Amino acid sequence: MRKRNVLTALTLTFATVATGTGFAASPKKPAPAQQDGLERFREQKVVWGACQDEKLAASGTECARVTVPLDYRAPDGRTLQIAISRIKARDNGKGKGKAKTRRGILQTNPGGPGGPGLSMPAELRERLSPEVAAAYDIIGMDHRGVGESNPLDCGLARTAWIRSAGNDRAGFDENVRLARQDARKCAAKYSGTLAHYSTRNIARDVDIVRAVLGERRTSWFGQSYGTILGATYAQMFPERVDRLVLDSAPDPVKYGDMRLAQDMGPVNEKALDEFAAWAAPRHSRYRLGATPAAVRSTVEGLVQRAMDEPVKVGPYRVDGHDLPLFLFDLGVDAQKNTQYAEVVRNLLDAADGKANTPHPYLLEQLKVMSDPAGSGMSAGISGQLAVLCADTTMPRDPEWYWRALERSRAEQPVFGPALNGPLPCAFWKERPSEKLTEINNKVPALQLQATVDTRTSYEQGLGMHRAMRGSVLVTVPTRTHAVIVSRPGTCADKAVDDYLLRGTLPARDITCKPAA
């Protein structure tokens, strides 16, 4: 499964809301027992065809659209078109005895919120065993407001909400101004609809997809935010869950409020320390410092230099407000250490005025940042914010954030000023239309978590483990996010295979052996 770059990972597209139904009823499918006004949605006929994306179509993925209500409390009102995808099981399910291996559907979410999911079935199939691929139709979905599912685009002028306030109040005040501006733009363009982009409504969309595919139950594979969505689905529809895999989970108690972002600060500082310990023995190659303390000092010094005077990178400039965003991305995985060192060395040489070729990573990211609309990142962050801000409320007083930021500086000199500023949700006009689902159940689940995860920390993952009381935790001792994507060959692979194929969970929580 491909890795997303820093901007798509963070901002992980709603021109208009569809007003017609766009589907035909299927007379062959019996009406469901529940009478809640959603019968016509559950009974619609799905027409599979070629995907719009040529690479996706070439992978063997089929695509379709499913109609759902914008507001589940008013099913006769406006509707949305949800784009879904499918990689069919290698077994057609028509055999008898041992010949029949198809189990059902495996619905997926890549994370975000706001991560487009149509490509996930093809990508996930590359990581699952052939036996699992034979047993499931793997289903992808661009959730409401994202990708090909009535994408939202507030016309934002930036590509990520992570921006360092720097050393003074002026940088913080600029962050407040940007957050207010983003909130106002979204409110002006989508007045009266934004509260409907909640995780609870996305979970209801997932259940409509399950129903129209003719399945009594569904299995689930979710990464990052996809674990919140999977756990929410299991809480709302426990009788419809078959097998549930949660990879790199946040704490559902902290999801949606500022604690989720603030908890990223300490673990990202730890990732910087781990990188420094790796780079110090390689000082002769990268010249970043001969001791871990010297490497950290070099990185902190680079951030300060960029704050004082932006660093020229080709036709672009990198200032100290944006630089921590790149470090945030480079530190996510220990396997990026070489790139991390190359980028820091490149920036140091550029800051010293030495002739050098700009690092391709920097050029790629800065090109995207210079054109949020053209790159699609304005839409990406719009979809992400719509979900986050429909799910919860955040403190509205800027001074709350300033005090938190100031408290973080001593122990989080690089990431504290970047992860304690207000999100646009702090100034969102529309309040959530319903409370977040409290996760507290015994639905069986397999949970995978890395010991150093800079997005959803290990401690956050333990919060999900406590909330999903029927879960078994597989710990992978490494620095990464999304275990199945990034660490093939660990005991997590076998645990996923055993569970999805045979329904067998480990007898107790387990820890994989460190990679050789």
Automatic annotation (TrEMBL):
Residues 1-24 form the signal peptide. One of its GO terms (molecular function) is hydrolase activity. Residues 110-284 form the AB hydrolase-1 domain. Residues 416-512 form the Peptidase S33 tripeptidyl aminopeptidase-like C-terminal domain. It holds the Pfam family Abhydrolase_1. Residues 91-117 are annotated as: Disordered. Keywords: Hydrolase, Signal. Belongs to the peptidase S33 family. PANTHER family: 2-SUCCINYL-6-HYDROXY-2,4-CYCLOHEXADIENE-1-CARBOXYLATE SYNTHASE, TRIPEPTIDYL AMINOPEPTIDASE. This is Pimeloyl-ACP methyl ester carboxylesterase. The lineage of its organism: Bacteria, Bacillati, Actinomycetota, Actinomycetes, Kitasatosporales.
